[in-house]
Design goal:
The protein has eight helices and five strands. With about 190 residues, it is an alpha+beta fold. The chain has one domain (about 15-180): Glutaredoxin (3-Layer(aba) Sandwich), CATH 3.40.30. A five-stranded mixed beta sheet has the order 1-3-2-4-5.
């Protein structure tokens, strides 16, 4: 008797956005959940999403600095796990709000608060089911020159400093570039 292995599609962090899914400007952050600087940057991102409502979309990529924050890797895995139920952003904000309390049991409680109903959540966490996704983000970040968190990109362009003014400047420049693009039909 042959057994069929069940193939499960995993929603990757690079495919999880908040804001206008069709926006032509993407704000992307490489960060982690134990970092105070990332928690502050999260507040800036919320402000920018409000300010540029409908014009931008935001993507969070995991870059756990495990030599400094031992629980950041599991927190990233927990966020990816909640994304499978469409609760990534709820969990994302809860993790920042509770960044000093990210043990495995706490992550399970945070997932319930985020609205996750999966009975497998704790098993997935213990078995590192989504560890490859977090490691994939980490590798991509390293390949793109990320050394510290938070590191931001606007439409692939690295932003020098993660301040409100610098991010706003990068978004405005990207929006101008997008507006200058004239559809091919109009050029003919």
């Amino acid at each position: 008797m042959a057994f069929k292995k069940e193939v499960v599609e995993i929603i990757e962090p690079k495919d999880v956005f908040v804001g206008n899914a069709k926006a032509e400007v993407t704000l992307e952050e490489f960060g982690e959940y134990e970092s105070e600087a990332c928690a502050k940057a999260n507040e800036i991102v919320k402000k920018l999403l409000d300010e540029y409502d409908g014009k931008i979309r935001f993507n969070f990529r995991h870059f756990p600095l495990t030599n400094v924050h031992q629980r950041s890797l599991k927190a990233g895995e927990a966020a990816v796990a909640t994304a499978q139920e469409g609760k990534f952003w709820e969990m994302h904000n809860i993790l920042f709000a509770n960044r000093k309390n990210l043990g495995t049991t706490s992550l399970k409680l945070h997932s319930k608060e985020a609205g996750v109903n999966s009975k497998r959540f704790l098993d997935d966490l213990v078995n590192a089911t989504y560890g490859w996704q977090v490691q994939g983000d980490l590798r991509e970040g390293l390949n793109r020159g990320v050394k510290d968190v938070p590191t931001f990109f606007v439409n692939g362009e690295k932003i020098a400093r993660p301040t409100y003014d610098e991010l706003k400047k990068g978004i405005d420049a990207a929006l101008k570039k997008v507006k200058k693009k004239v559809p091919a039909k109009q050029r003919a």
